[in-house]
Amino acid sequence: MARAVPSATMRALSCIGMTRLGCLFSVEVAAAQGLPSSMDGLRLAVAVRKKESREGAVQTMPSRVQQGAADFEETLFVRCHVYCSGGGAGKPPTKFEPRPFLLSVVAVDAPELDLGQSTVDLSALVKESTEKSQQGERVRQWQMAFLLAGKAKGGELVVTLAFQILEDGGVGLYSQPATKTAALVRCPVTRI
What we know:
Layout: H1 7-14, E1 19-33, E2 43-50, E3 58-59, E4 63-64, E5 69-85, E6 95-96, E7 100-107, E8 117-121, H2 122-134, E9 139-147, E10 156-167, E11 180-187
Parallel strand pairs: 9-11
Antiparallel strand pairs: 1-5, 1-10, 2-3, 2-4, 2-7, 5-6, 7-8, 9-10
């Protein structure tokens, strides 16, 4: 009888022979805004976690919705690894293994409410940053607005995503200092 192989095992096998980059992923949570007036008084929090695991999940302190907005002004950090291959001889890696994270808004007093969750692929951000670096500009921050769902439909979660490479595995991704922030990007809600 064949047994299913856990996804963590498959992920580990798929990364054999790839270079491991140590990263610190940060999510600066500004606010949930444009919320319906029916949500005023509700306490909300924002959670960030790796998509494949609930381990290492982080969450903001609760913030009460007032006049259609909940202000957080808090930065969450998640330490992780991003795997890449290709490149070499002074060129950036050409292939990155996906590293998805889930961002969700949680109603602290009513956890049964589904306000939507969005997926962010950290490896795509790292790849975009290395490509821009080759063009002479360096971007390692992205301002984004994720659309909310359910009772919060019409609202959005405004965040700034960033990362720092702690260990580059000898790849040498960057040779100049970071200077720019990407423009605000609006992202649809993802149902999982």
